Amino acid sequence: MKIKGIIFVLLGAGSFGFTPVFVKTGFGYGYSLGQINIAQMVLAFILLSSLSLILGLKVKNLSKSDYIKIMITGTAMGLTSVFYYGAMLYLSASLAIILLFQFVWIGMIYEWVFSKVKPTRVNVLSLLVTLTGVVFASNLIAGDASAFHPIGLLLGFLAGASYAGFIFFSGQVATRSHPIVRSVLMVAGSMVLVLVVFVRDIPTIPITDGRMWILGTGLALVGGVIPTLFFAKGAPLITGRLANVLSSIELPVAIISAMIVLSESVSFLQWVGVLLIVVAIIINELGCMMKGKAVSDQG
User: Topology versus the membrane, per the UniProt entry (predicted)?
Assistant: First the structure.
Protein backbone atom coordinates (compact mmCIF):
# COMPACT_ATOMS: atom_id res chain seq x y z
CA MET A 1 0.00 0.00 0.00
CA LYS A 2 2.82 2.39 0.87
CA ILE A 3 4.52 1.76 -2.50
CA LYS A 4 1.27 2.63 -4.28
CA GLY A 5 1.00 5.82 -2.24
CA ILE A 6 4.55 6.81 -3.15
CA ILE A 7 3.95 6.18 -6.87
CA PHE A 8 0.68 8.15 -6.93
CA VAL A 9 2.19 11.13 -5.08
CA LEU A 10 5.24 11.13 -7.38
CA LEU A 11 3.01 11.13 -10.47
CA GLY A 12 0.77 13.84 -9.04
CA ALA A 13 3.66 16.09 -8.07
CA GLY A 14 5.52 15.35 -11.30
CA SER A 15 2.57 16.45 -13.41
CA PHE A 16 2.44 19.76 -11.55
CA GLY A 17 6.01 20.34 -12.73
CA PHE A 18 4.72 20.92 -16.27
CA THR A 19 2.56 23.90 -15.27
CA PRO A 20 5.25 26.59 -15.80
CA VAL A 21 5.46 25.62 -19.49
CA PHE A 22 1.72 26.12 -19.99
CA VAL A 23 1.55 29.27 -17.84
CA LYS A 24 4.50 31.00 -19.50
CA THR A 25 3.09 30.07 -22.90
CA GLY A 26 -0.29 31.50 -21.90
CA PHE A 27 1.26 34.76 -20.74
CA GLY A 28 3.19 34.86 -24.03
CA TYR A 29 -0.11 34.65 -25.92
CA GLY A 30 -1.42 37.61 -23.93
CA TYR A 31 -3.85 35.79 -21.64
CA SER A 32 -4.31 37.28 -18.17
CA LEU A 33 -3.72 35.54 -14.83
CA GLY A 34 -7.46 35.38 -14.25
CA GLN A 35 -8.23 33.91 -17.69
CA ILE A 36 -5.61 31.19 -17.26
CA ASN A 37 -6.82 30.22 -13.79
CA ILE A 38 -10.50 30.21 -14.77
CA ALA A 39 -9.89 28.09 -17.87
CA GLN A 40 -7.81 25.62 -15.87
CA MET A 41 -10.29 25.11 -13.02
CA VAL A 42 -13.47 25.05 -15.13
CA LEU A 43 -11.99 22.50 -17.54
CA ALA A 44 -10.54 20.44 -14.67
CA PHE A 45 -13.98 20.30 -13.05
CA ILE A 46 -15.61 19.28 -16.36
CA LEU A 47 -13.02 16.56 -17.00
CA LEU A 48 -13.23 15.06 -13.51
CA SER A 49 -17.03 15.25 -13.39
CA SER A 50 -17.25 13.54 -16.78
CA LEU A 51 -14.92 10.79 -15.59
CA SER A 52 -17.05 10.31 -12.48
CA LEU A 53 -20.23 10.05 -14.54
CA ILE A 54 -18.68 7.63 -17.05
CA LEU A 55 -17.59 5.34 -14.22
CA GLY A 56 -20.99 5.65 -12.56
CA LEU A 57 -19.51 6.81 -9.26
CA LYS A 58 -21.81 8.04 -6.51
CA VAL A 59 -21.16 10.02 -3.37
CA LYS A 60 -21.39 7.67 -0.42
CA ASN A 61 -20.91 8.00 3.33
CA LEU A 62 -20.10 11.71 3.20
CA SER A 63 -21.55 14.04 5.79
CA LYS A 64 -22.16 17.73 5.29
CA SER A 65 -18.98 18.49 7.20
CA ASP A 66 -17.06 16.10 4.89
CA TYR A 67 -18.27 18.05 1.85
CA ILE A 68 -17.11 21.30 3.41
CA LYS A 69 -13.72 19.91 4.48
CA ILE A 70 -13.02 18.40 1.04
CA MET A 71 -13.94 21.61 -0.79
CA ILE A 72 -11.88 23.73 1.61
CA THR A 73 -8.92 21.41 0.96
CA GLY A 74 -9.52 21.99 -2.74
CA THR A 75 -9.32 25.74 -2.28
CA ALA A 76 -5.73 25.23 -1.15
CA MET A 77 -4.91 23.93 -4.64
CA GLY A 78 -6.80 26.86 -6.16
CA LEU A 79 -4.82 29.29 -4.02
CA THR A 80 -1.59 27.58 -5.06
CA SER A 81 -2.41 28.19 -8.72
CA VAL A 82 -3.36 31.82 -8.08
CA PHE A 83 -0.21 32.59 -6.07
CA TYR A 84 2.20 30.44 -8.11
CA TYR A 85 1.08 31.69 -11.51
CA GLY A 86 0.91 35.24 -10.12
CA ALA A 87 4.53 34.98 -8.97
CA MET A 88 5.54 34.15 -12.55
CA LEU A 89 4.24 37.56 -13.62
CA TYR A 90 6.95 39.21 -11.50
CA LEU A 91 9.69 36.58 -11.32
CA SER A 92 11.38 34.10 -13.59
CA ALA A 93 9.98 30.58 -13.55
CA SER A 94 13.04 29.29 -11.65
CA LEU A 95 12.64 31.85 -8.86
CA ALA A 96 8.92 31.14 -8.62
CA ILE A 97 9.66 27.43 -8.34
CA ILE A 98 12.21 27.84 -5.54
CA LEU A 99 9.69 29.91 -3.55
CA LEU A 100 6.99 27.31 -4.15
CA PHE A 101 9.38 24.72 -2.77
CA GLN A 102 9.25 26.31 0.66
CA PHE A 103 6.34 23.88 1.07
CA VAL A 104 8.96 21.28 2.10
CA TRP A 105 9.67 22.86 5.49
CA ILE A 106 6.24 24.46 5.83
CA GLY A 107 4.71 21.00 5.48
CA MET A 108 6.80 19.76 8.40
CA ILE A 109 5.44 22.61 10.50
CA TYR A 110 1.88 21.65 9.54
CA GLU A 111 2.50 18.08 10.62
CA TRP A 112 4.12 19.26 13.84
CA VAL A 113 1.22 21.60 14.67
CA PHE A 114 -1.75 19.49 13.53
CA SER A 115 -0.45 15.93 14.01
CA LYS A 116 1.92 16.62 16.93
CA VAL A 117 4.72 14.83 15.08
CA LYS A 118 8.09 16.49 15.65
CA PRO A 119 10.68 16.32 12.87
CA THR A 120 13.48 13.84 13.57
CA ARG A 121 17.17 14.49 12.92
CA VAL A 122 16.94 12.45 9.72
CA ASN A 123 13.94 14.55 8.60
CA VAL A 124 15.89 17.74 9.25
CA LEU A 125 18.91 16.39 7.36
CA SER A 126 16.65 15.40 4.47
CA LEU A 127 15.11 18.87 4.54
CA LEU A 128 18.51 20.60 4.40
CA VAL A 129 19.66 18.43 1.50
CA THR A 130 16.35 19.04 -0.31
CA LEU A 131 16.57 22.82 0.06
CA THR A 132 20.22 22.79 -1.03
CA GLY A 133 19.19 20.82 -4.09
CA VAL A 134 16.37 23.27 -4.76
CA VAL A 135 18.82 26.21 -4.70
CA PHE A 136 21.14 24.52 -7.20
CA ALA A 137 18.38 23.11 -9.43
CA SER A 138 16.59 26.46 -9.64
CA ASN A 139 19.86 28.08 -10.81
CA LEU A 140 19.53 30.68 -8.06
CA ILE A 141 23.30 30.88 -7.56
CA ALA A 142 23.88 32.01 -11.14
CA GLY A 143 20.88 34.36 -11.04
CA ASP A 144 20.62 38.04 -10.20
CA ALA A 145 19.27 38.58 -6.68
CA SER A 146 18.21 42.11 -7.61
CA ALA A 147 15.62 40.55 -9.91
CA PHE A 148 13.52 39.61 -6.86
CA HIS A 149 10.29 41.60 -6.99
CA PRO A 150 8.62 42.10 -3.54
CA ILE A 151 5.16 41.16 -4.80
CA GLY A 152 6.59 38.14 -6.60
CA LEU A 153 8.40 37.03 -3.44
CA LEU A 154 5.23 37.31 -1.38
CA LEU A 155 3.11 35.44 -3.94
CA GLY A 156 5.75 32.72 -4.28
CA PHE A 157 5.94 32.18 -0.51
CA LEU A 158 2.14 32.09 -0.23
CA ALA A 159 2.12 29.48 -3.02
CA GLY A 160 4.46 27.34 -0.94
CA ALA A 161 2.27 27.68 2.15
CA SER A 162 -0.95 26.81 0.31
CA TYR A 163 0.67 23.90 -1.56
CA ALA A 164 1.94 22.45 1.72
CA GLY A 165 -1.58 22.74 3.12
CA PHE A 166 -3.05 20.94 0.12
CA ILE A 167 -0.56 18.07 0.38
CA PHE A 168 -1.05 17.68 4.13
CA PHE A 169 -4.84 17.92 4.30
CA SER A 170 -5.35 15.77 1.18
CA GLY A 171 -4.43 12.81 3.34
CA GLN A 172 -6.65 13.85 6.25
CA VAL A 173 -10.19 14.44 4.93
CA ALA A 174 -12.80 11.80 4.01
CA THR A 175 -10.14 9.29 3.01
CA ARG A 176 -12.68 6.44 2.74
CA SER A 177 -14.52 8.09 -0.16
CA HIS A 178 -13.57 7.31 -3.77
CA PRO A 179 -10.51 9.32 -4.92
CA ILE A 180 -12.29 10.55 -8.06
CA VAL A 181 -15.32 11.73 -6.07
CA ARG A 182 -13.01 13.52 -3.63
CA SER A 183 -11.12 15.05 -6.54
CA VAL A 184 -14.33 16.39 -8.11
CA LEU A 185 -15.25 18.08 -4.84
CA MET A 186 -11.71 19.43 -4.35
CA VAL A 187 -11.60 20.93 -7.84
CA ALA A 188 -15.11 22.32 -7.27
CA GLY A 189 -13.72 24.16 -4.26
CA SER A 190 -10.81 25.44 -6.33
CA MET A 191 -13.13 26.55 -9.13
CA VAL A 192 -15.43 28.48 -6.79
CA LEU A 193 -12.46 30.25 -5.23
CA VAL A 194 -10.95 31.17 -8.60
CA LEU A 195 -14.27 32.44 -9.97
CA VAL A 196 -14.72 34.63 -6.88
CA VAL A 197 -11.17 36.00 -6.98
CA PHE A 198 -11.25 36.69 -10.73
CA VAL A 199 -14.94 37.54 -11.13
CA ARG A 200 -14.03 40.60 -13.21
CA ASP A 201 -12.13 38.42 -15.69
CA ILE A 202 -15.11 36.17 -16.45
CA PRO A 203 -16.58 38.47 -19.17
CA THR A 204 -13.16 38.69 -20.85
CA ILE A 205 -12.80 34.93 -21.44
CA PRO A 206 -12.31 34.45 -25.23
CA ILE A 207 -14.97 31.75 -25.72
CA THR A 208 -14.23 31.27 -29.43
CA ASP A 209 -10.43 31.15 -29.03
CA GLY A 210 -9.53 27.50 -29.65
CA ARG A 211 -5.93 28.08 -28.62
CA MET A 212 -7.14 29.26 -25.22
CA TRP A 213 -9.10 26.05 -24.63
CA ILE A 214 -6.31 23.78 -25.85
CA LEU A 215 -3.89 25.50 -23.50
CA GLY A 216 -6.48 25.44 -20.71
CA THR A 217 -7.11 21.71 -21.18
CA GLY A 218 -3.41 20.92 -20.94
CA LEU A 219 -3.06 23.08 -17.84
CA ALA A 220 -6.21 21.54 -16.35
CA LEU A 221 -4.71 18.07 -16.73
CA VAL A 222 -1.24 18.78 -15.33
CA GLY A 223 -2.26 21.45 -12.81
CA GLY A 224 -5.70 20.30 -11.67
CA VAL A 225 -6.88 16.82 -12.63
CA ILE A 226 -3.78 14.65 -12.25
CA PRO A 227 -2.32 16.26 -9.08
CA THR A 228 -5.69 16.37 -7.30
CA LEU A 229 -6.69 12.83 -8.30
CA PHE A 230 -3.32 11.22 -7.57
CA PHE A 231 -2.84 13.04 -4.27
CA ALA A 232 -6.35 12.02 -3.23
CA LYS A 233 -5.40 8.41 -4.01
CA GLY A 234 -1.83 8.37 -2.71
CA ALA A 235 -1.62 10.83 0.20
CA PRO A 236 -3.77 8.76 2.61
CA LEU A 237 -1.40 5.79 2.13
CA ILE A 238 1.74 7.58 3.36
CA THR A 239 2.69 10.20 5.95
CA GLY A 240 2.31 13.89 5.22
CA ARG A 241 6.05 14.36 5.74
CA LEU A 242 6.95 11.72 3.15
CA ALA A 243 4.41 13.20 0.73
CA ASN A 244 6.15 16.56 1.06
CA VAL A 245 9.60 15.11 0.37
CA LEU A 246 8.37 13.04 -2.59
CA SER A 247 6.71 16.13 -4.04
CA SER A 248 10.20 17.53 -4.62
CA ILE A 249 10.13 15.53 -7.88
CA GLU A 250 8.21 18.49 -9.29
CA LEU A 251 11.40 20.53 -9.59
CA PRO A 252 13.46 18.23 -11.84
CA VAL A 253 10.34 17.66 -13.95
CA ALA A 254 9.93 21.43 -14.33
CA ILE A 255 13.58 21.82 -15.33
CA ILE A 256 13.52 18.97 -17.86
CA SER A 257 10.22 20.11 -19.40
CA ALA A 258 11.54 23.67 -19.71
CA MET A 259 14.70 22.32 -21.33
CA ILE A 260 12.78 20.24 -23.88
CA VAL A 261 9.74 22.43 -24.60
CA LEU A 262 11.09 25.94 -23.99
CA SER A 263 14.65 25.13 -25.13
CA GLU A 264 16.13 26.43 -21.87
CA SER A 265 19.71 25.41 -21.10
CA VAL A 266 20.42 23.38 -17.95
CA SER A 267 23.77 23.87 -16.23
CA PHE A 268 25.89 21.31 -14.40
CA LEU A 269 24.94 22.86 -11.03
CA GLN A 270 21.26 22.43 -11.83
CA TRP A 271 21.75 18.72 -12.46
CA VAL A 272 23.67 18.54 -9.16
CA GLY A 273 20.61 20.04 -7.52
CA VAL A 274 18.35 17.41 -9.07
CA LEU A 275 20.67 14.69 -7.75
CA LEU A 276 20.63 16.21 -4.26
CA ILE A 277 16.83 16.12 -4.22
CA VAL A 278 16.87 12.42 -5.10
CA VAL A 279 19.44 11.83 -2.35
CA ALA A 280 17.17 13.67 0.11
CA ILE A 281 14.30 11.33 -0.74
CA ILE A 282 16.56 8.31 -0.14
CA ILE A 283 17.77 9.76 3.19
CA ASN A 284 14.20 10.31 4.35
CA GLU A 285 13.12 6.80 3.37
CA LEU A 286 16.14 5.16 5.03
CA GLY A 287 15.42 7.16 8.17
CA CYS A 288 11.82 5.96 8.22
CA MET A 289 12.94 2.36 7.70
CA MET A 290 15.48 2.58 10.53
CA LYS A 291 12.92 4.14 12.86
CA GLY A 292 10.37 1.46 12.00
CA LYS A 293 12.95 -1.29 12.58
CA ALA A 294 13.93 0.21 15.95
CA VAL A 295 10.30 0.30 17.07
CA SER A 296 9.83 -3.29 15.87
CA ASP A 297 12.91 -4.46 17.77
CA GLN A 298 11.69 -2.79 20.95
CA GLY A 299 8.33 -4.51 20.55
Answer: Multi-pass membrane protein
